[in-house]
Design goal:
By secondary structure, the protein is an alpha/beta fold. Helices cover 43% and strands 15% of the residues. The chain is built from 19 helices and 14 strands. A 7-stranded mixed β-sheet has the order 4-3-2-1-5-6-7, with helices on both faces. The termini are far apart.
C-alpha cells in the first residue's frame, strides 16, 4: 500500500511562494503556504494556542562550509573560531552522533569564554549573514500566528547565542534551547540541564505549556527532521517543513500537512551581469534625463527627468518588475509627505518609478559617500541629516517645511535606516511633524519584496517583482505635536497589516 503526503491546499490554484520570486519545483508546491496561512487565520485564536517553530531547517536554513583558506584563517583567530562554531551548527544536527559532536565541540571551544562575548558574536553573525538565511515563508507564518494572538515559541537543540538574535528579529518572545552552564559570567564547558535533543525538545514544550497555560491540543508545531518527531507529536496541529525521509513517511501515515520552503540562493553569474546592467542603466538614464531637459536650464525639470529615465532604464536593464496598487494615491494629493518601509538601496529606484516627478527626499548623511547614489541625490536636492546629532538633524529638517509649501513632495523612511528583514521597526516622528507644520497629508507607501531583489548588506541585484501599495492619504493637521505616539503607532501598524494581508485592489479606489 502506498501513502500520499497531503499538502495543505492541494488542488488550489498555485500562488507565488514569495511574491514575485517564483514558485517552488517541489511536488507539494507554492499553494501550500497560502493554505497554511488561511488555516491559521480560521483556526483557534488567542494566547492559549502556541505556535512552536523549530529553528534550524524550519526557520533558518544552514550554511555551506567556507572555502579552505578562510577556514584556516579562522582557526588562527579565537573570535573567528567562535563565530565559525556559531554559524556551522545553525542548520542543526541530523543524527544523534552529529549532535554529540556538536556538544563536544562547543563545550571544548567555548569553555572559559565570557557569555557576553558569545552573545555579541551571535548578534554580529546575525547582522552579517544569518539574516539572509531566514526563510521568507517562515517569516509570513510567524506574522500570521502573531496576528491570531498565538504564543510564539522558537525552539532549538543548539544554543541561545545562535537562536536569540533570530527570535528578536522575528518578534518571537519565547526561546527554548540547550543551555550552557555559566559561572561568574563565563562558560564552564558543560551543559546546563538536559539538552534539547529529540525527547528533550518535547519535554521542554510540555513544561512550557504547563507554565504558560498553553493548550497543546489546539497548538501548532513546525519542524523538519526525524529527531523532531516527538516535538511534532506534542501539538494538535503538526506541520512537516522541508521534511527528511523519515518525516515524509510519518507525515504520510498520519496525514500531516507538508510545506517546502526554498532557501535564498547565493548570487550567480546572471545576478552579477544583471547588477552591472542595472548600474549602467541607472547612470546612463540619469545622464540622458539631465541632457533631455538641459535646454530649460531649470534644475527641477532636469532632476525630474533624471529620476524618471534612471528608474526606467534600471528596471529594464535588471528585468525587475514593479506592481502597484493604489497608484492614484501617488499622484494626488500633492504635495505630500510620502513615508515608506526601507529595506534595500533598490527602494530609491522603486520610489522613482512609483511617484514619478515632483518630489525630493530626506536621507542619512552617510549616503553622500556612495559614489553612485550620493551625487544623484544631491542633484535632486535631497536633505541629508546627521543621525548622531539630534539638534543638527532637527535644524536640517526645518527648510523641508518650506520645500513642501513650495509644492514639492518629500519622501522619508520613518524607520530611520534599512532593516535586515521585512520587519517594520519603530517609526520616528519627524515625518509627521513636518507634514503637520506644512499642512500636507502623509501618504504611506508599503514596499514588499525589495529586500529579496537587493539584500541589506549586498550590492548584487536579483530578478523578481517588487510590489508596492500606496495607501490613502492621512490628515495629520489635528494631531497634538506633543503627544502623537498613538497616532504614529497606528500608521506603523498599517504597514504591518498591509504586508500581512496584501490588498487585491487599489486602496482608496
Amino acid at each position: 500500500m502506498t501513502h500520499r503526503v497531503r499538502g495543505i491546499g492541494a488542488g488550489r490554484p498555485a500562488l507565488p511562494l514569495r511574491p514575485g520570486v517564483g514558485v517552488t519545483q517541489r511536488p507539494v508546491g507554492a499553494q501550500d503556504l497560502g493554505a497554511a496561512l488561511e488555516a491559521v487565520r480560521t483556526g483557534p485564536q488567542g494566547p492559549r494556542v502556541a505556535a512552536i517553530f523549530d529553528f534550524g531547517g524550519t526557520v533558518v536554513h544552514g550554511f555551506n562550509p567556507p572555502p579552505l583558506p578562510r577556514r584556516l584563517l579562522r582557526r588562527c583567530s579565537t573570535q573567528g573560531a567562535l563565530t565559525a562554531t556559531l554559524l556551522g551548527s545553525i542548520r542543526g544536527a541530523r543524527s544523534e552522533g552529529e549532535y554529540e559532536r556538536f556538544l563536544q565541540s562547543v563545550m571544548y571551544s567555548w569553555a572559559g569564554t565570557a557569555e557576553d562575548e558569545l552573545a555579541r558574536l551571535g548578534r554580529q553573525a546575525f547582522a552579517r549573514s544569518v539574516y539572509g538565511h531566514i526563510y521568507p515563508e517562515a517569516w509570513r507564518l510567524v506574522r500570521e500566528h502573531e496576528a491570531a494572538g498565538h504564543t510564539l515559541v522558537l525552539i532549538s537543540s543548539v544554543t541561545c547565542y545562535q537562536v536569540r538574535p533570530v527570535a528578536e528579529e522575528l518578534g518571537v518572545p519565547h526561546v527554548l534551547c540547550t543551555a550552557m552552564a555559566v559561572q561568574d559570567g563565563v562558560l564552564t564547558g558543560h551543559v546546563e540541564g538536559k539538552p534539547l535533543w529529540r525527547n528533550g525538545k518535547a519535554d521542554a514544550v510540555r513544561r512550557f505549556a504547563i507554565t504558560h497555560d498553553i493548550d497543546l491540543t489546539q497548538s501548532w508545531a513546525y519542524a523538519d527532521s526525524a529527531a523532531d518527531l516527538p516535538l511534532l507529536q506534542t501539538a494538535g496541529h503538526p506541520v512537516a517543513v522541508n521534511p527528511d525521509p523519515r518525516v515524509v513517511l510519518e507525515a504520510a501515515e498520519k496525514d500531516w500537512p507538508v510545506l517546502h520552503f526554498r532557501p535564498r540562493q547565493a548570487p550567480g553569474a546572471t545576478d552579477y551581469a544583471r547588477t552591472l546592467a542595472g548600474f549602467t542603466g541607472l547612470l546612463g538614464g540619469a545622464l540622458f534625463g539631465v541632457a533631455a531637459k538641459a535646454h530649460t536650464k531649470q534644475r527641477r525639470q532636469m532632476a525630474d527627468s533624471m529620476m524618471t529615465y534612471a528608474a526606467d532604464t534600471t528596471l529594464r536593464g535588471t528585468g525587475v518588475k514593479v506592481r502597484v496598487v493604489g497608484a492614484g494615491n501617488a499622484r494626488a494629493p500633492r504635495p505630500a509627505v510620502f513615508i515608506f518601509n526601507h529595506q534595500s538601496q533598490f527602494d530609491i529606484v522603486v520610489l522613482a518609478e512609483v511617484l514619478g516627478t515632483g518630489f525630493t527626499g530626506i536621507a542619512k548623511r552617510e549616503i553622500t559617500k556612495n559614489p553612485i547614489f550620493g551625487p544623484l541625490m544631491r542633484f535632486v536636492e535631497v536633505t541629508f541629516i546627521d543621525r548622531a546629532d539630534t539638534a543638527a538633524a532637527k535644524a536640517a529638517l526645518e527648510p523641508v517645511v518650506d520645500t513642501l509649501r513650495g509644492g514639492l513632495s518629500v519622501v522619508i523612511a520613518p524607520e530611520g535606516t534599512r532593516s535586515l528583514t521585512p520587519r517594520i521597526g519603530p517609526f520616528k516622528k519627524g515625518a509627521f511633524h513636518i507634514a503637520r507644520q506644512a499642512g500636507v497629508p502623509v501618504i504611506p507607501v508599503v514596499i514588499r519584496n525589495a529586500g529579496e531583489i537587493a539584500w541589506r548588506n549586498s550590492a548584487v541585484l536579483r530578478k523578481g517583482v517588487v510590489d508596492v501599495a500606496v495607501l490613502p492619504p492621512i490628515d495629520v493637521s489635528g494631531w497634538d505635536p506633543a503627544d502623537m505616539d498613538a497616532e504614529v503607532e497606528q500608521v506603523r501598524q498599517l504597514f504591518v497589516d498591509t504586508l500581512l494581508h496584501w490588498p487585491e485592489s487599489r486602496p482608496g479606489g
